[in-house]
């Protein structure tokens, strides 16, 4: 065989045919560079130009006052409300000094000062356990997950509440980010197994199991969380035999967990439905029983598909934790609002500052999680599509 | 590849006879279900029993008779006649109506805003699509309750008092008592105008039917939309002028502490509506975007190949298909909005939860009954909406094939 | 955390309290300064809190053996009914329906109150009858909300209610100018005024439109426990009458020849034993929180920022209506 593809000039045809490509000429200046980009994306047609101008005007109207309020005119340091009051005839922006003064409470609530290291320790353990779980490359996922679901909750319980030689800290003293995270994490951890069971139940061939699952799921999805929390705080005590009583925080946790389990079940059901029927049939052909085929074949695939969905449920749950303030628990939002009534800090700009700070806290968590969910979605986007 | 040196042993035949009843899937299924039913019945009985024992032991009155007793409290927003002598049952109706009002308006506004932002996010204009993206990412990642409190406490409460309120056109006024606008008052012959409006709508529909039939028969297109709209407007205006303009505006007047007359949109109502609209619109925008992106570009190309213009392509080809993708998640957003309207309690808007599960519950002390009724109402609203949307969906889906 | 076993409705609360080692007391979650509010460390103090501490002192001779459950208006009666708390001291009005339909029983009145109004001074209002057409902030589901509606109708006046689920929300709305006036129990008005941005710009109007006898409540069906709470309060009032104070209680115990004082302090008769307590139960109460007058002045009276006059809450012998049955 001759080397037809070999490069280099052929002496016989060199006269007529170029041996090499003409180097591409640079594109005209109107296509590339910032000018070309803006022509394509901002000024491609009269309508587009109008939209661009309108949007720029909108931004020019809205953004500078916001920046002024948030940064340039803001009060960054101060001891009390005096610092945050507007000077005579002048303008004053956000009162960040308020956040600075209340920062400890926003993180821990009224958790005793000398015991706060316990909360910090739990946070460190949590991050140390969660980060390796969240990064796909890190090995020992299974062992790590088992540790997070068994040892961590026990350790967190004794560290946060007390016992085993640690002084007890009543949950009434808990607050701030601590309560937000405790409610959200407990909610997700409790709702996951329950959600899996309900999702399997809803797809079960047994009519009563199916009916029970459907009724449970549709009931919790049909009522607002706030009525669930009211029920947990006002009615639950009457449901239990006299002599048994739950802590207020625990009652809220039960309500939140049941509520989010129903949503979790629907997310997981989506994953189960996405598994091709052949997988079920193959599992049955291998002689696996129902639970075996679920545990070994179906659920590992289905759960992997719905990781983004689970993260999205977690985002909703995380936002929903703010509702516990309505039943008198103090999460981040609750504790900030509680501090508005501190006479030392009552200035007109304090509520807006507090709400914006709380919004920032929630936004960072939720946006971070949604980015993670999109990242996982892209990562998992191979291997399961049927094409 | 290696060959097996022994023939595969035959699979054990599953027998469903006496000896291995334990392994029969049918019987196991039945037993399992009976156990579940037993467990649930026992659990339910346990709860009911505990509740009854607790209520009786503590000598707490129970029953639904409180619905017939005098409520005795006033409600800030009354869509229908209500006085403090009416019953808790009447107060329940007021609360329910207030919930439905704010939910219905919220759905309308959130849909409009959500569609605008969803389409803006797909705009070829980079700046506009980025602004829309920032809107969506900001508002859907902040809890609704926080947004409501922000609108209510940080924005509306810094408005001036009624005497220093911002004066707007038409005698409207914006202050910390709310937005006060003139109230339209219908005169005696106003129903004639309404009938004319109705007649116009019927006529427009007739024109539309005729235009469609003609297009089917001859292929000629008649601009039935614009003509129909013109008919409605003209007929109504003519009737309005002929009856001597029976609609008058009642302008608000500052008397004593507050405005008297006019229509008052209270800050509680505005904050709730604003919060629900802005929050839900962010989700609807994503639904709309996903719906439009789900329609492949080939559909547009096919329509162009058939000679349809871009506007018609959008209206006749893209939108009907996108709606099929959009409607199910849109419905669940509507349901979410309705359920979220219960956060009214945080900003003092008298919805069902605030009125009935608030004042009535506290006054009568019938916690179990009141929470039961409240949850049932939301459940019924959810189920009705779900049923309607399933029906609608099946109709839309049928056209597909 | 969390699962605790406490007295059921029919069990003997005293035995349960003794077994667990503390009294669980329900107080106002909103923190009503002077009546019940926590400091930065979560230590509760106030006039209502003193009732809790008095009961703890009567049972354990130690006023610190009490735990507080902050409750909203909605939760307060259920918490008591279900046994979550042993005693409710949360500025709750004693009414017949609450006494008869909720399975609870009020044991006495520690503060004779009445509903009043507060308005901005700049409105120039000097009487509640000038409030026609005003927006009025009120907390939902309270006797206050009902009285408000009745009173305005009885006086043929209009008003716009602005109703909030929680007291602190109503406070904040009034402070921001959403309402022209604020209504709640007069004692609450003084306490809430202190929390406003500029307390001096607000005035409490003279009208008192209702009777609001505030007092502690316990579950029905446990007479012994009800007696303990009832007599802890009576002991404080009797002590004031007899001149027994926190400072002189030990001295009087050693030296007093007054038979009434001797009976109060457990030197004569076995009144303590008859309600299941130690003989010096009342002495312990007074040592812990002082007599009624001392507790009043320290928390809400001249010794406090509220500076509420004794008024109706003075002793019957001094023009008020606080009156305790004798210990004999």
User: Topology as H/E string of chain C?
Assistant: EHEEEHEHEHEEEEHEHEHEEEHHHHHH
Q: Strand order of the main beta sheet of chain C, please? A: 11-10-12-9-13
Kindly report the average pLDDT value of chain B. Answer: 84
Query: Could you give the distance between the termini of chain C?
Result: 44 Å
Instruction: State the CATH class of the largest domain in chain C.
Output: Alpha Beta
Low-confidence stretches of chain C: 1-10
Helix content of chain B: 55-70%
Secondary structure tally, helices of chain B = 12
CATH homologous superfamily heading of the domain at 88-167 and 268-399 in chain B:
MetI-like
Give me the secondary-structure category of chain B: alpha+beta
Tell me the β content of chain B: 5-15%
> Do you know the CATH topology of the domain at 88-167 and 268-399 in chain B?
MetI-like fold
**Rg over C-alpha atoms of chain C, rounded to the nearest angstrom:** 20 Å
Order of helices and strands of chain B: HHHHEEEEHHEEEEHHHHHH
CATH architecture of the largest domain in chain C: 3-Layer(aba) Sandwich
Low-confidence stretches of chain B: 1-10
Proportion in helices of chain C: 25-40%
Please name the defining characteristics of this protein.
heterotrimer; A: 387 residues; mainly alpha; MetI-like fold; 1% strand; C: 328 residues; alpha/beta; D-Maltodextrin-Binding Protein, domain 2; 2 domains; 3-stranded parallel sheet; 15 strands; 18% strand
């Amino acid at each position: 065989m001759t080397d037809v593809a070999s490069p280099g000039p052929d002496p016989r045809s060199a006269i007529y045919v170029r041996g090499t490509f003409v180097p591409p000429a640079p594109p005209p200046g109107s296509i590339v560079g910032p000018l070309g980009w803006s022509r394509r994306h901002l000024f491609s047609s009269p309508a587009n130009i109008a939209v661009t101008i309108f949007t720029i005007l909108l931004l020019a109207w809205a953004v500078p006052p916001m920046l002024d309020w948030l940064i340039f005119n803001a009060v960054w340091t101060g001891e009390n409300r005096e610092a945050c009051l507007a000077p005579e005839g002048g303008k004053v922006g956000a009162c960040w000094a308020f956040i600075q003064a209340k920062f400890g409470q926003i993180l821990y609530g009224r958790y005793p000062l000398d015991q706060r290291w316990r909360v910090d320790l739990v946070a460190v353990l949590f991050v140390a356990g969660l980060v390796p779980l969240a990064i796909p490359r890190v090995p020992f996922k299974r062992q790590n997950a088992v540790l997070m679901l068994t040892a961590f909750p026990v350790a967190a319980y004794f560290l946060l509440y007390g016992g085993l030689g640690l002084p007890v800290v009543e949950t009434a003293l808990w607050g701030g980010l601590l309560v937000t995270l405790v409610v959200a994490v407990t909610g997700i951890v409790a709702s996951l197994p329950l959600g899996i069971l309900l999702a399997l139940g809803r797809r079960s061939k047994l009519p009563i199991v199916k009916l029970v699952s459907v009724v449970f799921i549709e009931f919790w999805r049909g009522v607002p969380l706030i009525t669930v929390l009211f029920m947990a705080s006002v009615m639950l005590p009457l449901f239990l035999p006299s002599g048994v009583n739950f802590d207020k925080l625990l009652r809220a946790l039960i309500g939140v967990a049941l509520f989010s389990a129903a949503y979790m079940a629907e997310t997981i059901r989506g994953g189960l439905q996405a598994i091709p029927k052949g997988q079920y049939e193959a599992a049955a052909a291998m002689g696996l029983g129902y639970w075996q085929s679920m545990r070994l074949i179906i659920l590992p695939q289905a759960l992997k598909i719905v990781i983004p969905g689970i993260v999205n449920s977690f985002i909703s749950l995380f936002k929903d934790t703010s509702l516990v303030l309505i039943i008198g628990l103090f999460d981040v939002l609750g504790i900030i609002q509680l501090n508005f009534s501190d006479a030392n800090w009552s200035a007109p700009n304090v509520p807006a500052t507090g709400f914006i700070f709380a919004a920032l806290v929630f936004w960072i968590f939720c946006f971070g999680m949604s980015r993670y969910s999109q990242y996982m979605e892209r990562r998992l986007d191979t291997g399961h599509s049927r094409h | 590849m290696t060959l097996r040196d022994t023939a595969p042993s035959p699979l054990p035949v599953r027998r469903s006879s006496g000896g291995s009843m334990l392994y029969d899937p049918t019987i196991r299924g039945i037993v399992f279900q009976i156990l579940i039913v037993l467990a649930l019945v026992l659990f339910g009985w346990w709860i009911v029993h505990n509740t009854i024992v607790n209520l009786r032991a503590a000598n707490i009155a129970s029953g639904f008779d409180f619905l017939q007793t005098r409520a005795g409290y006033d409600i800030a927003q009354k869509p229908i006649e209500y006085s403090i002598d009416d019953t808790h049952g009447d107060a329940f109706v007021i609360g329910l109506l207030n919930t439905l009002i704010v939910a219905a308006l919220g759905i309308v506004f959130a849909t409009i805003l959500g569609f605008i932002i969803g389409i803006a996010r797909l705009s070829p204009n980079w700046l506009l699509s980025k602004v829309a993206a920032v809107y969506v990412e900001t508002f859907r990642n902040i809890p609704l309750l926080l947004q409501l409190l922000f609108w209510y406490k940080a924005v509306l409460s810094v408005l001036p008092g009624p005497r220093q309120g911002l004066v707007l056109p038409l005698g409207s006024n914006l202050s910390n008592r709310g937005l006060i606008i003139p109230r339209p008052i219908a005169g005696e012959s106003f129903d004639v105008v309404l009938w004319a409006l109705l007649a116009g709508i019927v006529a427009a529909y007739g024109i539309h039917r005729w235009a469609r039939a003609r297009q089917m028969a001859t292929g000629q297109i008649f601009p039935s939309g614009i003509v129909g709209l013109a008919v409605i407007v003209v007929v109504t205006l003519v009737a309005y002028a002929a009856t001597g303009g029976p609609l008058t505006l009642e302008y608000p007047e500052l008397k004593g502490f507050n405005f008297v007359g006019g229509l008052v949109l209270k800050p509680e109502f505005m904050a709730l509506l604003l919060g629900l609209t802005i929050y839900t619109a962010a989700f609807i925008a994503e639904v709309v975007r996903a719906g439009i992106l789900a329609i492949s570009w080939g559909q547009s190309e096919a329509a162009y190949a058939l000679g349809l213009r871009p506007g018609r392509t959008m209206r006749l080809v893209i939108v009907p298909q996108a709606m099929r993708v959009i409607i199910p998640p849109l419905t669940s957003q509507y349901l979410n909005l309705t359920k979220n309207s219960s956060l009214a309690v945080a900003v003092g808007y008298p919805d069902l939860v605030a009125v009935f599960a608030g004042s009535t519950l506290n006054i009568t002390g019938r916690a179990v009954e009141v929470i039961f009724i409240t949850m049932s109402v939301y459940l019924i609203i959810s189920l009705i909406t779900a049923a309607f949307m399933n029906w609608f969906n099946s109709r839309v889906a049928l056209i597909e094939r | 955390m969390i699962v605790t076993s406490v007295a059921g409705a029919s069990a003997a609360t005293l035995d349960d309290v003794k077994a667990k080692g503390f009294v669980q007391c329900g107080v106002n979650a909103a923190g009503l300064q002077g009546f019940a509010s926590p400091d930065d460390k979560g230590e509760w103090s106030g006039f209502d809190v003193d009732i809790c501490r008095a009961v703890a002192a009567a049972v354990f001779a130690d006023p610190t053996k009490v735990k507080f459950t902050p409750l909203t208006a909605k939760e307060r009666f259920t918490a008591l009914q279900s046994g979550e708390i042993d005693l409710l001291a949360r500025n709750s009005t004693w009414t017949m329906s609450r006494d008869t339909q909720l399975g609870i029983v009020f044991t006495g009145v520690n503060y004779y109150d009445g509903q009043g109004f507060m308005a901005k001074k700049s409105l120039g209002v000097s009487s509640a009858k000038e409030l026609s057409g005003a927006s009025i902030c009120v907390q939902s589901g309270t006797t206050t909300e009902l009285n408000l509606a009745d009173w305005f109708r009885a006086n043929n006046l209009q008003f716009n209610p602005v109703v909030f689920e929680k007291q602190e929300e109503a406070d904040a709305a009034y402070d921001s100018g959403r309402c022209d006036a604020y209504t709640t129990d007069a004692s609450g008005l003084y306490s809430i005024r202190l929390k406003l941005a500029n307390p001096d710009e607000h005035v409490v109007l003279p009208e008192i439109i209702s009777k609001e006898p505030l007092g502690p409540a316990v579950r029905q069906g446990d007479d012994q426990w009800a007696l303990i709470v009832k007599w802890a309060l009576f002991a404080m009032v009797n002590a004031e009458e007899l001149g027994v104070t926190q400072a002189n209680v030990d001295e009087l115990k050693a030296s007093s020849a007054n038979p009434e004082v001797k009976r109060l302090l457990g030197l004569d008769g076995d009144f303590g034993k008859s309600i299941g307590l130690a003989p010096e139960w009342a002495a312990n109460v007074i040592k812990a929180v002082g007599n009624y007058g001392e507790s009043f002045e320290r928390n809400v009276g001249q010794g406090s920022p509220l500076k509420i006059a004794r008024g109706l809450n003075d002793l019957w012998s001094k023009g008020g209506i606080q009156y305790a049955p004798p210990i004999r």
